[in-house]
Structures are given as C-alpha cells and as structure tokens.
C-alpha cells in the first residue's frame, strides 16, 4: 500500500527521498567526522609528545655510559609514574612513516582505543640501536607537573644561556614554551606560594574562542627565583572545531543539493518533454506524443496531453470531413432551388409555378434540417457540451417519442415495452430524447412494418434504451461505419430513404458524453437492426460546462 502511494505521488516520493537522503548524508558525514577526528587525534597526540620526547632523548644522550642511561631512564619513569623501557631497535617494527618521524627526531605514538592505552616510541640520536618505549596508561596532574622538569634538566647544562637554548628547542614543541617573570603572570598568592616551594602550577583557561579550553604549566626556574618556565597554553583536543563543523556542514549541504537535484531531475525531464511537445503543438505539429512513465501526476499530465492531442486531431479531421460533407450535401438542394427559380422566371402557368414554389419550399426546409443537424453534430463534436444531469423517469421519455412518432402517421407499428413507472435514471432529458427520437426515426425509415422501443437498468448498474426494427438490418462489416458523419450504406439504407447521415453520429456523440456506448447488432426477435445505448444509471449530480 505504501509503495503504491509513493509510486503514484510525486510529492510523497520526493519527500521520502529527502528523508532517506538526509539520513544517508548524516550517516556519511558522521563517519567522515570519525575518520577525520581519528587522524586529528593521532596528530594531536604526536604534537603534544614531540617536544618532551626530544628533551627526554637529549637527556638520555647526555649520559656517557649505558648504566647511567638506564639510571636516568629509571628516574624519569619514577618521576612520570609511567613505565619507560630501553629496548633494542630490532624488536620494534616501524612503518615507513614511523621511521621517518624517528629520523626527524620526533616521537611515534600508538594508541590502543580498546584498552585506552598509548605507547610512545622515542629515538636516540647517539644510540640508533635502541629506542625508548613508554607505556602511557594514565595522564594526570602528576605527569603534567613533571614535564617542565625535563625541560629544566636540559637547560641546567647551559647556565646563563637558558633563553638561547630554549629558543633552539622551541621548534620541536607544538605549543608555546618560554621563560617569563613572575610579576608578568596573573597569579594569585596561593599559586605564587606553590612556585616558591618549587612546585609546578597548572593554569586552566576556558575560552569561547576557536582555541577553546587550554592548559598552561608554570614551573619555577632554579637559581632564578623571579623567573618561571611556562609550557603552553596547550589547547585541549576539540572534537568539533569551527573549521571542521563548517566544512562538514558545507559538504553535507553540497551532498544534499546533489541529492535534491537527483530527485528533481526526473521531474524536470518529464516537464521538459511536455514543454517540448506543447511547443511542437503550437507550431502546428500534433503528431508528437509524450511518453507515459509510471502512474504519478506527471504520468497523468502526459496522458492528458496525449488525450488532448488525439482529441484536437480528431476535431480537426472531423472539421475537415464535415466541411467536405457539408459542401457536398448543400450542393444538391441549392442546385434544385436555383433550377426552380429559373423555371419560375420562364413559366407562365400558374399551377406549375405553384408546384415549383412548393418544391423550392421543401428544398429550403431540407436546408434548414441539414443546418440544424450540422449545428447539433458540431456542438457535440467540439469539446464538452453543457449537460445538466437529473433524475428522470425513463418511461416518460420513451412514451413521449412513441407518441410523437405515431402522430406522424407513418403507417408503421410502434411497440413500447415500458419499464417500471418508478424507474429513474441520471440523464440529460433533452439529449436522451434526441437519442431515442433519432433511433426511432431511423428505424421507421428502414423497417418493413414494426419498430420496438424498450429500456431499463441492467444488473451491472447501467441504464439502456433499445430500438429494434424488422427491416433488412445492417451488414456486420458495415456496423462500425454507420456512426461516422454523413455515412450511408450502399444497399438497403440508401439516399432515397432520406436523411443526411448525421443522426447516428449525433447519437454516438451523445452516448460518449453520457459516459456510455452505442452498439448495433441484429434483433433476435424482429430480425432487423437493433440499436442499444447504455450509460451509467447513477452518478454524482454535476453540471459539465465547456
């Protein structure tokens, strides 16, 4: 049921497509953020450890003997409260990128997300056969306060030149590092007291700027009580910085715009087809048809356009046929009138002149009848006529036509098989009367002796009127042609019988606008032709306007 509704509605299909598109784009952008942040987090870890790793490497390299190196490493491990191993380089497998970082005197950081443990590998420039291997399973204030000690341990070998050598190692640090006077730092009395006790101070700064939260580590300088070593501010890792959020937002909007264009493209293509067909129609070419794809509103539009094109073509062809037929039908009575007028001008016999006047009057009446038939046919053929459907008693229409026909003294037997008096059908009385009148008049013209009229409602809910006669009937191969305008048969139903070939065409168009059909076959009882028109007996009451 849902799939059928989506298939038949452009709005719901596009709306559902947008919902799916938003979900897919959101999922894709989430995965993209995770991938980007994984790389950013790795770079962040490496940038934080590069500087300290270099200083630790320099501290180990200063030790002349292996045992001294091991002792220094042991002291560093106790200071950081992290295990530090002095391992053979052959036991550590490094990738090409990691080897390049070691060669550039940078650290290699490996992070185990499942266990929340990091591993730092540090190269030794004077001892390429060994690495320092640090297991980081915790990072707290203890570890952060210990970081300045390694920097100070490096600077202590250059008394009086601390600032110069600090400048040399700055390039290895991702964050700022420098020496400042205590008075230039905004510290409270408690923090100053801790510095005088040779303790490091952590400064947290929460900012609404792009940098976000930062941490600075302030440590007293040995032999310089008025100066301190400052590491930082070190920005905390931001999982969604402005640049990333803006980039992901723009990228998601770009993907959504592409998706929306993909959803709208089929609709645009169908509209382009209809517009192209309309332009061709405007230029006079009615042969083009729009392909009908699916069952949605655009398919209905394409179907309506094709039906309209077929209808216009049919109207044009009918108009051409009507003009040809009218010119042919008018020629005979006009010629007779002209001939009669010439005879009147040349004849002196009063009785003969009266006879010619009567013949001219009959020809004029025939012209009036023909014009009336043509106007009725054209009205029914061109567009939608004005039909006022109402509940009518069917027997009243049938009885009225039977009485009017008997009043003409046709010398034919008119039999009415009347439906129940209470039987009502939805119809336009004027046009229904015209249908029965045309069918009965046609039957009277061609029957031998008897015409039968009947009507009612069938089991399928369709109303019907039926007119039968006992004449020669209509050959089966000619039955489809007799409803064409000005059509006449060559055998029994000849021109001598009268009429212009428009009566059955009018009946056919009325049946069409009633939403029904007209059929002809052989009467099973009388043996002649049987005409039956059917249409819906009940419908919503409405007035169909042009």
TrEMBL record:
UniProt domain Histidine kinase: residue ranges: 325-539
GO molecular function, a single term: ATP binding
Domain of life per record: Bacteria
Protein name in UniProt: histidine kinase
Record-linked InterPro entries: 2C_sensor_his_kinase, HAMP_dom, HATPase_C_sf, HATPase_dom, His_kinase_dom, HisK_dim/P_dom, HisK_dim/P_sf, Sig_transdc_His_kin-like_C
Entry annotated with the keyword Lipid metabolism: no
Regions crossing the membrane: 12-33, 244-265
EC number: 2.7.13.3
Enzyme class: transferase
Gene3D superfamilies: 1.10.287.130, HAMP domain in histidine kinase, Histidine kinase-like ATPase, C-terminal domain
Principal location: membrane
Localization terms from the record: Cell membrane
GO CC annotation, single: plasma membrane
């Amino acid at each position: 049921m849902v799939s059928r509704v989506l298939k038949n509605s452009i709005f719901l299909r596009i709306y559902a497509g947008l919902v799916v598109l938003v979900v897919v784009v959101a999922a894709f952008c989430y995965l993209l953020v995770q991938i980007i942040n994984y790389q950013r987090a790795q770079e962040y870890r490496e940038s934080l450890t590069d500087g300290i790793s270099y200083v630790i490497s320099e501290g180990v390299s200063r030790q002349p003997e292996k045992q001294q190196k091991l002792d220094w490493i042991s002291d560093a491990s106790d200071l950081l409260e992290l295990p530090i191993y002095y391992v053979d380089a052959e036991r550590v497998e490094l990738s090409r990128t990691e080897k390049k970082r070691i060669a550039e005197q940078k650290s290699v950081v490996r992070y185990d997300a499942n266990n929340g443990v990091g591993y730092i590998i540090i190269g030794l420039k004077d001892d390429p056969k060994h690495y320092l291997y640090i297991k980081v399973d915790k990072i707290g204030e203890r570890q952060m306060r210990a970081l300045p000690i390694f920097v100070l341990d490096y600077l202590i070998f250059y008394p009086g030149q601390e600032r110069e050598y600090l400048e040399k190692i700055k390039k290895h640090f991702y964050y700022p590092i420098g020496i400042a006077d205590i008075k230039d730092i905004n510290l409270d009395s408690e923090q100053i007291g801790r510095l005088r006790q040779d303790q490091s101070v952590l400064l947290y700064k929460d900012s609404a700027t792009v940098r976000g939260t930062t941490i600075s580590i302030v440590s007293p300088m040995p032999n310089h009580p008025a100066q301190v070593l400052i590491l930082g501010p070190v920005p905390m890792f931001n999982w969604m910085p402005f640049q990333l959020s803006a980039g992901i937002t723009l990228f998601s909007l770009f993907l959504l715009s592409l998706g929306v264009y993909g959803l709208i493209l089929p609709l645009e293509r169908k509209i382009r087809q209809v517009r192209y067909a309309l332009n061709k129609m405007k230029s006079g070419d009615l042969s083009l048809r729009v392909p009908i794809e699916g069952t949605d509103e655009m398919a209905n539009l394409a179907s309506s356009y094709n039906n309209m094109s077929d209808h216009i073509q049919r109207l044009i062809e009918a108009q051409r046929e009507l003009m040809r037929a009218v010119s042919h039908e008018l020629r005979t009575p006009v010629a007779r009138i002209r001939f009669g007028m010439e005879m009147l001008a040349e004849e002196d016999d009063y009785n003969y002149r009266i006879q010619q006047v009567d013949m001219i009057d009959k020809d004029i009446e025939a012209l009036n009848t023909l014009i009336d038939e043509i106007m009725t046919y054209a009205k029914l053929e061109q567009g939608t006529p004005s039909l006022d459907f109402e509940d009518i008693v069917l027997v009243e229409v049938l009885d009225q036509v039977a009485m009017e026909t008997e009043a003409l003294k046709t010398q034919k037997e008119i039999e009415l098989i009347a439906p129940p008096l209470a039987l009502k059908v939805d119809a336009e009385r004027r046009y229904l009367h015209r249908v029965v009148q045309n069918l009965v008049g046609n039957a009277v013209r061609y029957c031998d002796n008897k015409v039968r009229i009947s009507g009612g409602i069938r089991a399928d809910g369709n109303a019907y009127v039926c007119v039968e006669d006992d004449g020669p009937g209509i050959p089966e191969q000619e039955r489809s042609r007799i409803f064409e305008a000005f059509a006449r048969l060559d055998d029994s139903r000849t021109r001598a019988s009268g009429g212009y070939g428009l009566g059955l065409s009018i009946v056919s168009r009325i049946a069409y606008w009633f939403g029904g059909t007209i059929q002809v076959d052989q009467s099973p009882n009388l043996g002649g032709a049987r005409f039956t028109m059917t249409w819906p007996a009940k419908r919503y009451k409405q007035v169909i306007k042009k």
